[in-house]
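> forwarded from #structure-qc
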């Protein structure tokens, strides 16, 4: 695990110092607890990561040792659990934003996951080092110790509260490590999800260690859930479905259906979304 030991000062917003926490211990606990919550939550759903650095790629992983997919500028890598990577000539869409997995409205056929890794060309071990190293970098974002972090910002983005924590890199040449947590729109509990991560990390052998300025990473995280008619829907659409269900339950005098975290499996069919525009398929 990577240890972050140093602190930074609070930033100034709109000409005044933003006081975000009563104590350093509370800050560290908030960040550590919600990193664990995020790690556990994403392990139980179709997890999606979009990378801007070290290279552009989009990573999909199903829960419980499910199939995986990495789309990048050199094509798409796919594999079934315990099987080698295979490659198809299907490149990542140009201009995919880092918050795509969280905020865009899209769907895909749930059955497609069974095809990942069953077709395509075999790749050699040297080629597989690239997707394997990217996955290790993505996973490292959820395993960093946060005893020394301090809050840098609290604000609102896309209609939801967000908390940003920062700490200097252990590598003197590295950029600050930055965690961005955002609260689900309909979540009634106190938990928040890690939606963005940035810092300096590098792979040494089989381990991820603090890197220098040339080893910057920047990831955005989200998820997909089982929706209607054999489709999976993106996080934003899933929240719209849940919000509509909650409003319907409230108007009929029934209880709240709960937050996405309460329905974390992708195998449970849910109500259909009322879309105001066609949803793009992946």
């Amino acid at each position: 695990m990577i240890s972050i030991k140093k602190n930074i000062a609070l930033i100034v917003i709109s000409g005044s110092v933003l006081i975000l926490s009563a104590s350093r211990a509370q800050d560290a606990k908030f960040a550590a607890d919600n990193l664990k919550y995020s790690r556990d939550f994403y392990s139980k759903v179709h997890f999606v990561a979009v990378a801007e650095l070290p290279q552009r790629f989009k990573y999909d992983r199903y829960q419980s040792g499910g199939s995986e997919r990495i789309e990048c500028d050199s094509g798409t890598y796919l594999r079934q659990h315990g099987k080698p990577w295979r490659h198809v000539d299907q490149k990542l869409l140009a201009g995919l934003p880092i918050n795509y997995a969280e905020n865009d409205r899209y769907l895909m056929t749930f059955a497609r996951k069974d095809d990942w890794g069953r077709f395509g060309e075999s790749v050699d071990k040297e080629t597989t080092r690239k997707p394997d190293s990217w996955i290790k970098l993505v996973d490292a974002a959820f395993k960093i110790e946060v005893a020394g972090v301090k809050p840098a910002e609290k604000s609102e983005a896309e209609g939801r509260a967000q908390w940003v924590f920062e700490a200097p890199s252990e590598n003197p040449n590295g950029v600050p490590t930055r965690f961005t947590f955002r609260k689900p729109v309909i979540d009634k509990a106190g938990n928040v999800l890690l939606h963005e991560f940035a810092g300096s990390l590098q792979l040494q052998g089989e381990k991820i260690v603090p890197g220098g300025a040339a080893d910057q990473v920047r990831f955005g995280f989200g998820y997909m859930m089982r929706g209607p008619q054999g489709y999976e829907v993106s996080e934003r659409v899933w929240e719209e479905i849940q919000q509509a269900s909650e409003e319907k339950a409230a108007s009929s005098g029934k209880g709240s259906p709960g937050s996405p975290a309460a329905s974390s499996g992708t195998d449970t069919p849910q109500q259909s979304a009322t879309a105001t525009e066609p949803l793009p398929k992946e």
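QC bot note: The first strand starts at residue 12 and ends at 13. Residues 39 and 139 are 9 Å apart (CA to CA).
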